[in-house]
Design brief:
The complex is a heterotrimer. Chain A contains twelve helices and three strands. Chain A is mainly alpha-helical. In chain A, helix 2 (52-59) crosses helix 12. Chain B is α+β, with helices and mostly antiparallel strands. Chain B has helices at 48-56, 78-81, 98-108, 113-126, 142-154, 173-190, 201-207, 225-230, 235-240; strands at residues 4-12, 23-32, 37-41, 63-68, 71-72, 83-86, 161-165, 193-198, 210-215, 218-223, 247-250, 252-254, 257-260, 263-264, 280-284, 289-305, 309-316, 319-326, 336-340, 346-349, 352-354. In chain B, strand 16 (289-305) and strand 17 form a beta hairpin. Chain B starts with a strand and ends in a 6-residue tail after the last strand. Classes of the chains: A mainly alpha, B alpha+beta, C mainly alpha. Strand 1 of chain A pairs parallel with strand 1 (91-92) of chain C, so a sheet runs across the interface.
Chain lengths: 290, 360, 266
Amino acid sequence: MIDRVSNQKAWFMVLPVILLVAFNAIIPLMTVVNYSVQETFGNNVFFWEGMKWFEEVLRSERFHASLGRQVLFSFTILIIEVPLGILVALNMPRQGIGVSICLVLMALPLLIPWNVVGAMWNIFALPDIGLLGRAINGMGVEYNFTQNPVSAWLTVVAMDVWHWTSLVVLLSYAGLCAIPDPYYQAAKIDGAGRWQIFRHIELPKLKRVLTIAILLRFMDSFMIYTEPFVLTGGGPGNTTTFLSIDLVKIALGQFDLGPAAAMSLIYFLIVLLLCWVFYTLMMRSESNAS
Amino acid sequence: MAEITLKEIRHSYQSNATAPGDFVIRGVDITWREGGAYALLGPSGCGKTTLLNIISGLLRPTEGAVLFNGIDVTAQDPVTRDIAQIFQFPVIYDTMSVYGNLAFPLVNRGVAREEVDRRVKEVAGMLDLSEMLDQRAVGLTADNKQKISLGRGLVRSDVNVIMFDEPLTVIDPHLKWKLRSELKRLHQRVGFTMIYVTHDQTEALTFADEVVVMHDGDVVQVGTPKDLFDRPEHTFVGHFIGSPGMNLMPCQIVDGKPVVGRSVIPVNRSFADHEKCSGLVLGIRPECIQLDPEGFQVSITRIDDVGHYCIVRAEFEDQALQIFVKEGERIPSENLRIRFDRSSIQIYKDGWIVDGGTPR
Amino acid sequence: MKTKSNVIVTVYIVFLMLPIYWLLNMSFKTTNEILGTFSLWPKEFTFENYIKIFTDPTWYNGYINSLAYVSINTVLSVAVALPAAYAFSRYRFLGDKHLFFWLLTNRMAPPAVFALPFFQLYSAIGLFDTHIAVALSHCLFNIPLAVWILEGFMSGIPKELDETAYIDGHSFWRFFLKIFVPTISAGIGVTAFFCFMFSWVEMLLAKSLTAVAAKPIAATMTRTASTAGYELGLLAAAGALTIIPGAIVIYFVRNYIAKGFALGRV
């Protein structure tokens, strides 16, 4: 843990960042907050409603259901993507032509626009005309994501793992490459085995980078919209209707701006709370070290 | 402990090296005696770290052999060579306490717990770390962390050589000298062969019994600090050692005597006439130039007062010269006359020292 | 040991390439064939999707527009994040922990909610339909990302390195640019790539803030969702083509990412 020097002038170094981000954040946020506490019957006429929308949302069963699905989804993909990402990063070559090949190929899924990701997986997984769908059904397993909730879930999870694991891989790989050679050399001289090198050198040094990776994946998966929407539309029925999808349905489908805005804020606060808890835990474990 | 011999070591980081320029190490033959305290001195990029890594086994040389006590270990990895290496910045295991760090090399080698405990406590005592054994290593200051690195080398009783790669780089300046003297004391107490790589001549000259000077992939001189100072065998050594280094001036040999410009320099021996050719350089240290009212005339460019003495920068026969003048000696503002100490003059041809012939 | 590594990596890459192969497969088919039959390689191989893209000005202008604002945003985000990350990593100041966390909170709101307010904001300051507008708006999520990642890498460098540099006589900027930045090159490489990537794939704000002059591929791609359903072949071809700029970016930063940490002689 670095001993930081107290220096109030550091604010100048941070100022450009604050200005650019705050400009984009505060004003639009105010608008949303505004909506969340008002009622409208159209024609830009608003009535103050106070906490009514918040209560309504928090009590609604629909909200609880979406939230539950969302939590399950985020948890599932985190459990898969983080260990898998680290595993791949540990095994990637560090020099030679292999580096270029690996980095470029692994980056490709990240670069595809999310609606195309949804669309291509849609066709890919269809039981009659898609490679995946046909292959699985061909092996005797019953698979149809448009009708079967389990199939739908598996497909959505597989799509997310395919799409986003490379983010964890790239971050972990960069983190590993940033570990100076002398650490590995010293470990060699000390007679440490592979697992010990991972446990005592690589994992501690990757901690910060992994925190970022986990927080990013958690947030993005918790707010996921486009890919599952294009893939399953939230279905079959509402079995893959995650929070974002539900939110948009309410806001756009029914033009209920009030509840939608309230739901957005609650949504935001949940993400905020969970991230804050995780972040504090990570930071505390680091300061315990020093 | 071991005697280490390097035979005809050449190394290149490129796969198809042919030209001399491709090689980082260009031909090193040297023996490090058992129990010696050596410094490997040279500027950045001269190949010292490469050579160190070849000795430790972290690097396999492109050509040549490494022998420990006469046995060829070139193919062996660091663990089997029983070496210890301390790096430029502290390498410690974040997850463990100081005790854990020190015990790590022994635990990995399957040493019994009581023995581990004994050795760790012994080394901790030597290094003044006994009170910190239970603390997490990651929270300590840089100099203590380096001591832990050193400790991991010392706990192993079978260490053949301990190597230091510029270990004081990230240490606070006021702690550097403290750590340096501790290292010297440790060597006297433990007697391991130690090789200390640095680009700082003060570190090298204070730590080592013998200094190996490297320049551009070659070893240019091996000798005690005194040898290096009094009789540098290469212009690079003359220039690098000493602060400021040796004065070097192009010269000719006429009638067995060195001539700079139009001045004949008196010297305590004669040089063979067939050395009369180009590439000759005369070297004289600033400390070996005395003020002499009957000597050569030089014009003063600048005087720097450094406390106990002054460094006079002057011009002699169109060559720049630096002269040490002790405190108390009067420097005339103009018409400064000097003489060169006859026994301290060296002649170099193409960089290498030329031994003079008959003493006079 | 080496072969085990290679197997793991190869299996992973094959897993990644299968849907991409499928995407390419689709891009060379007509939409009818995609929806009508199952074929591992187009029965009627056609370039028409690609031709349509290359000849339609809205398409290739879309690429140029996207490249423009993404580049602006990437450079801006990394440049502004570097000093801020350094400050967070090396200094303590009033509110630093809260500020650091606040940055991340800006990535926590579902973007759908902000489309309209953003539109109103940027219209109000007269930046509607400009590259700058999209580049600036993407700062909302890219700058926090950049600051967090860079700070993570900077904290891995011992502070003693900074101090030794000062003692050796370097000025702050010379130290920062010549010594510090190269040692965190892995972090910078990966940050640049992620900023590029997240800005590149962001569609909602890019669409909301532009109309004609700065219209990005995002807008034109969603256009293919016509009332008759997706023009899948076209979408696939467009998707395949959007991969290329990002692939080039990561190819260029590969040496920054994979460079072994060489603690240079200070």
